[in-house]
Amino acid sequence: MNILGIETSCDETGIAVVDSDLKVLGSALVTQIDLHKKYGGVVPELAARMHSQTIDTVLRTALANADIELKDIDAIAVTYGPGLPGALLVGIAFAKTLAYSLQKPLIPVNHLEAHLESVLIEHKDEIEYPALGLIVSGGHTSLVEVKKPGEYKLLAKTRDDAAGESYDKAAKLLELEYPGGPVIDRFAIQGNPKRFKFKIPKFSDGSNDYSFSGIKTAVLKHINETPLENRDELFIKDIAASFQAVVVKILLKSVERAFDEAIHKSMIITGGVAVNSGVRAGFKDLCGRKGMKLFFPRPSLCTDNGVMVAALAQRLFKEKKLADITLDAKPDLKLG
Ligand code: KG4
Ligand code: ZN
To answer: Which residues contact residue 59 at a Cβ distance below 8 angstroms, ignoring those fewer than 6 apart?
Structure first.
């Protein structure tokens, strides 16, 4: 059973073919980073237009890489939310056309669930449930309990910026390139994480939710308090290291609070920020101490891609969770 997965929820056009054993037969991805770079963030209208321009080529490349033809595809899967409305609609319209013309089933995929289950591609038989699942990307920061694949309970979510968004905004303030995550990560490794003070946000209602907008404002404060002549490379490295240290602390703290030794056996971390060196090191240490097995998808599967869509669709197909031609975008789709 070969499923074609289509992802267009943000600024990556990704298409892949995955078989029933979750083997990736072929994939292709076009990122729009260069297009959005000059604006310091994703411009929704441009993203949608770019998806329409590239999706056909991405399909052809994915099929060529898989060395198969459209007639060898048994079902079409597509991300229908959450994401940018216009961007989602491009993928959905394309998927519907393919499914209708090939007379194959159409499978609707939740982007957040696809991120979470992307770990199954490489670690299917190793994960023990219930697990804790942390989705940290440019658009989302959520902690869920995964009772088993497909059964989720939301434990914490961001009340303002997502973790990746805070990286992107901090980078913009520091006049670094977009996306901010990779560049801040590179500088952070060389800097002093203790030089600048950042407060860990707390909610008066005791909630375990996240807030990242305050640390972005703190970056601006540290910049303004540093004379222009002192804003040299060492300043950038130290502020990047201090910023990264607090982001990692916020994520670790929420997981420590949610962790129940009697229940949680594994920890899954996905989304663009899961590539981060500080996140990886911090969770390796935490999970080692708590006796939880730790799983990350490989870096190319952490950021948006078509592989995770096709992989999740294999389970959804078995569960008969199909859509018809009326499938619409759900920009605010939730998990759990
Ligand atoms: O999962 P993703 O491709 O898109 C969304 O669904 O949002 O994640 C993109 C986000 C961007 O905000 C980017 O800055 C961040 O992931 N990111 C990182 C790193 N690499 C990418 N953040 C921190 N450290 C990294 N190494
Ligand atoms: Zn994503």
So the answer is: 4, 15, 28, 94
Q: What is the DSSP letter of 176?
A: P
CA-proximal residue: ligand 1, atom 22 (nearest): 181
Considering only CA atoms, which of 182, 216, 176 is closest in space to residue 199?
216
Output the ligand 1 site: residues, CB below 6 A: 10, 137-139, 164-165, 167-168, 179-182, 185, 271-273, 275-276, 303-304
Q: Which atom of ligand 1 is nearest to the CA of 271?
A: 1
Residue 186 in tokens: 């590179």
DSSP structure class, residue 275: G
Say how many Å lie between the CA of residue 41 and the centre of ligand 2. Answer: 15
For 30-87, the pLDDT digits (tens) are: 999 999 998 888 999 999 999 999 999 999 999 999 999 999 999 999 999 999 999 9
Q: How far is the CA of 203 from the centre of ligand 1 (A)?
A: 25
Q: Which residues contact 117 (CB under 8 A, 6 or more apart)?
A: 149, 308, 311, 312, 315
- Complete edge-to-edge strand list for the sheet that includes strand 3-7: 24-31, 12-18, 3-7, 75-81, 106-110
Cβ contact 212:158 at 8 Å: yes
What's the length of the chain?
336
DSSP state of 197: -
Q: Taking the model in full, what pTM does it have?
A: 0.95
Residues 1 and 81: their CA atoms lie apart, in Å, by 24
Q: Assess whether pLDDT exceeds 80 at residue 336.
A: no
CA atoms within 13 A on the CB side of 188: 24
